[in-house]
Design a protein that fits this description.
Elements: H1 2-34, H2 41-84, E1 87-88, H3 98-113, E2 119-124, H4 131-151, E3 159-165, H5 176-182, E4 184-189
Parallel strand pairs: 2-3
Antiparallel strand pairs: 1-4, 2-4
């Protein structure tokens, strides 16, 4: 009887110890599952560095886009300035006037600043005279402008000429004022510009 009591007591003691052990393990598992480890100073620094690098890269991309847009706008303005300045001729003439030569001098300087640019020179006439005559006269006007630019040091392979005769009048009216506008050589850039002139 005494032995049974000792055995029963030992069994209860063993059960109690096991219960305590299981309870402590459960608490440990729960606590390990819920506790979050605070970030270390090194992790904080790394995360901050990543954000700073990302911000700098964004700024550099935005700056590059702004610079490219400014370059394109300046390029378009330079192209428009070159193409908008025509030279004009007297009636039934293809000889260059002093003002035409001054204009061509500026164009030659401009072309030297843009060595990758090529220009097409268009010869135009007023409506008087036959179509065939005006085509021939327009070609002489375009060629006169081209030869003058070549004499100023612009390579011939950067220049070409064409005549439109009376086909493309700047002013369609049949007046002296309109005819004076139509007797001209017009300049068209044939390729995109790759460089810009130096800042003054």
């Amino acid at each position: 009887m005494k032995a049974k009591q000792i055995g029963f007591g030992a069994l209860i003691l063993l059960f109690f110890i096991s219960s305590l052990f299981l309870l402590s393990c459960t608490k440990k598992i729960k606590s390990e599952g819920t506790v979050t480890k605070p970030p270390t100073a090194m992790e904080d620094k790394t995360e901050k560095s990543k954000k700073e690098i990302g911000s700098k890269e964004r700024e550099l991309r935005e700056k590059a886009l702004r610079e490219e847009e400014a370059r394109r706008q300046k390029e378009a303005a330079e192209r428009a300035r070159f193409e908008s300045e025509d030279i004009y001729f007297d009636f039934d003439q293809y000889l260059l006037s002093d003002s035409a030569k001054q204009n061509l001098n500026r164009k030659a300087q401009w072309l030297k600043q843009f060595p990758s640019a090529k220009a097409l020179i268009e010869g135009h006439c007023d409506e008087r005279g036959s179509a065939e005559y005006n085509l021939a006269l327009g070609q002489k006007r375009a060629d006169a402008a081209m030869q003058y630019l070549i004499s100023l040091g612009i390579s011939a392979n950067r220049l070409s000429s064409v005549s439109f005769g009376e086909e493309k009048p700047m002013d369609p009216r049949s007046t002296e004022e309109a005819w004076a506008k139509n007797r001209r050589a017009h300049f068209v850039l044939k390729i995109e510009l790759k460089e810009l002139p130096p800042k003054a």
